[in-house]
Amino acid sequence: MSTKKHFHMPTVNSKMAYFQKAICFMSIILILAMDSCQQMHEDSSQIGADSLETISYQSVLDRYDKPQDSLKRNAAEFLIYNLSRHAGYYGDDIRILSEVFMAIDTLAYHTDNVQDFVKNQILDSILRINEGRLPAHGNEISDDKKVTPGFLYNNIEFAFKAWQTAPWRDSIAFSDFCEYILPYRVRNEQVEFWRPQTYMDNLIDIKNAPKPKELRSVFDYLKSNIESTTTLNSYFAHKYPFTQNFSNTLKARIGACETTTAFTISNLRSVGVPAALDYIPHWGNTNNKNHYVVKLIEKRVKKHQFSNVNAPINTWGIVDFSSDYSRDRHFFRDDEIPKGMRIQYIKTIPKIYRYTFSENVILKEINETVPQEFITQLFSKSNLKDVTDEYMQSSTIMVDIKPEYEKKQVAYLCVFDVDGWQPVAISRISSGRAFFDKVGNYIMYLPAVYDRGNIIPTGAPFFLDSLNLIHEVKQGPNNYRQTKLIRKAPLYSYTAYHTEALKGGRFEGANDKDFKDAIILYQIENFPFYMNVIQVKQNKQFRYLRYVAPTGRKFEPDNIAEIQFFGSDTSQSLKGEFIGKTDGSWGNGIDKAFDHDLGTYYESTATNDVWIGIDLGKSERITTIKFCPRNDTNCILPGNEYELFFWNNKWQSLGRKKATTYNLEYEKVPDNALLWLKCHSGGREERIFTINEGIQQWW
């Protein structure tokens, strides 16, 4: 799943005009929504009760009792056998919240384009309208009590039509058809009959593909078209409490990662393109979880396409968002990076699973024989297939399990998250051991068991090297070292690239408001990571001060996070009236460069001749310049309070410290310990690390 980045930003006036226009329609729509919701509460008795009885599907099988229909009968048997393993949420709360998507759809009819912030406001408004009136959760109903024989029959007919009329039909095995074209649902969304109209719409669309008779070409073309018109929106992920169904996503063209990928897959399947929903439960070296990938199922499966080795390579085409390296951007040599830093190009992957309609026999056996209190939510359903090796190099490892944990019957490998260790792999415990297959390398794992919501460590954390060797991380007895820390999370390449926007820029002073008499105070000749302090060797006084962005090829708008000019009093930066060639994009005006906040930044809307500065009102001698590029604020910041922890079967504190400079020093840190630096002043982007030759090595 990809997102497209656009640098054009609407002006303040245009965005306010758009908002005023949209708010008029929103008011009308929300009044109608309130009335509709009220009627739904008042007339709930007229809503048909969902069946609690298992439905008979013999009539579907009877339709396919002729020899020429044997494949369709096999397909029917496949669906019927697996119906009870799937379920969706139904009820008044979901019907009420469908007003969100109806409102967005209505607004879209009256305006050219409904921007995401308006869609978010509609969601908020309808949630507020129904606050306290919605049930705590929907009513989960299994498909064998919801899907009618007629629905199943029509689904089979349309799925076969899509498959058998596709130019690539001969390259698709019947087993792949059953798993990746035939199913009427992707996840646990409400069941809908989306195939007929979707088939017709996409059949017309794929004629414009570069090679409309080739499976890969059609997949790439259709997937790109759908994703470019459907917004990936994390706000809906946090606010909307259910999985969006197909029709609601079609109306709003917005949703969380799971929603947009499932929507894309349904569209692909509608025209006979075998597509799967692949799933990364948690990244190995970031705090992000639940990432979904749209995967084309091809006859020839490519395996071991990349590894977790941190290298300047682009893996986006294999797993989107897995790499931020760009060949067109600068490759930073070690001598161009501050000492003690390393740039992280790759997001490591511990496991990749595929959602299937059929069951995984291993997970089925675990769920049928192991008490549910010992099984995490991720593995409580059995329709997951481990496909890690289709993507990357991996290992098979054995972990010893102490006797006191064997009664839990299954063990897990977990990866770190600021919210606690997250399980990503499961294995039966047998004779004091657990075997884990297809495990991603270069990741810190914690072996554990699970009991009623609690992760219980069973051994020391460890990582796998390139030779598949396990390295346990245990602090040595009475061995300590002095440690200097400069960050609380890795420096990812997408942050490092912001320094390109400043190299070649310069600071100038002048006494003419048009800078006709400008003198260069400092030229940026390196890649300036974080706050830079420059002593000015110039005795002349200046009234006008500015930063001039570099010229030449640019990959992002000119931007800078902080500029501070100092006179004889180096404890207080100089103040003045903001001046500049452009005001800046929405929310990123000139003031953001002078607000003493490294988390904000100025961003230009112009493509060349960009400069910003201040008019002091009178001439002053400049002694010092401080400046900082756009950044992630994960470096040590003066004034912030930090606490260092080390792992000893649980996180133990080594004490709190308030930073006075851009690094922290701890005198007595256990040798070979797994560490975590937590910032109590704000921000959640923190990662665990070890110390290797005095440098923080991130996991």
How would you describe this protein?
This protein is an alpha+beta fold and 699 residues long. The protein folds into four domains: 12-40 and 75-273, no CATH class; 353-472, no CATH class; 480-489 and 635-698; 495-628. Helix content is 25%, strand content 26%. The chain is built from 15 helices and 37 strands. The strands form eleven sheets. Strands 10, 11, 12, 13, 14, 15, 16 and 17 form an eight-stranded antiparallel β-sheet that branches. The relative contact order is 0.08. Residues 1-19 and 28-49 have low confidence and may be disordered. This is Discoidin domain-containing protein. Pfam families: F5_F8_type_C. Residues 583-664 form the F5/8 type C domain.
Figure out the total of helices.
15
Radius of gyration over C-alpha positions, nearest whole angstrom: 29 Å
Tell me the structural class: alpha+beta
Could you describe the largest sheet, including whether it forms a barrel? 8 strands, antiparallel
Number of domains: 4
C-alpha geometry = globular
Number of DSSP strands? 37
Q: What amount of the residues lies in strands?
A: 25-35%
**Low-pLDDT runs:** 1-19, 28-49
- Residues in helices, as a percent range: 25-40%
Overall pLDDT confidence = 90
The end-to-end distance, rounded to whole angstroms, is 25 Å
